[in-house]
């Protein structure tokens, strides 16, 4: 069994970087500058922004399903980065962070969940995918609750 973790597509977020701060605020978004090399996890590249890099902090619907498990929260995105992809490995943005892994069936209903301490994500993902009823897993930072990435079965 293999899995793939892919960052969000940058295209939907690109227009945000051309907006004024007032236009962003009208959408509930904010332009921020990372003040440290950790703590500003980009959901496109799946890497932390470096100090001095500009990001947009915005509200994002990560689990857009017609079930009680529809989910949305704040995320950071950076401009000019490609969507990161990892196969059978976890991205840098998972390192050192406790994760909440929410496993869903193809119908968007929650089937299982697991907390993964730093360094335990790979094993927890594999354990959850051992259940054939699990179609995908959404990873969230356990402490702050923000969406980290979608994890899907990889047939490659």
Automatic annotation (TrEMBL):
This is DUF1203 domain-containing protein. It comes from Sphingopyxis indica. It holds the Pfam family DUF1203. InterPro entries: DUF1203. The lineage of its organism: Bacteria, Pseudomonadati, Pseudomonadota, Alphaproteobacteria, Sphingomonadales.
């Amino acid at each position: 069994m293999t899995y793939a973790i892919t960052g969000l597509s940058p295209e939907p977020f690109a227009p945000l970087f051309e907006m004024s701060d007032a236009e962003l605020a009208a959408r509930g978004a904010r332009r921020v500058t990372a003040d440290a090399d950790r703590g500003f996890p980009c959901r496109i590249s799946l890497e932390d922004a470096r100090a001095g890099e500009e990001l947009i902090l915005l509200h994002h619907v990560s689990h857009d399903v017609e079930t009680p498990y529809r989910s949305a929260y704040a995320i950071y995105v950076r401009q000019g980065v490609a969507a990161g992809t990892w196969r059978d490995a976890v991205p840098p943005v998972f390192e050192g962070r406790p994760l909440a892994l929410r496993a869903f069936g193809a119908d968007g209903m929650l089937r299982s969940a697991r907390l993964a301490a730093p360094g335990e994500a790979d094993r927890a993902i594999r354990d959850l995918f051992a259940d054939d009823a699990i179609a995908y897993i959404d990873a969230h930072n356990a402490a702050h609750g923000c969406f980290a990435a979608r994890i899907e079965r990889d047939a490659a």
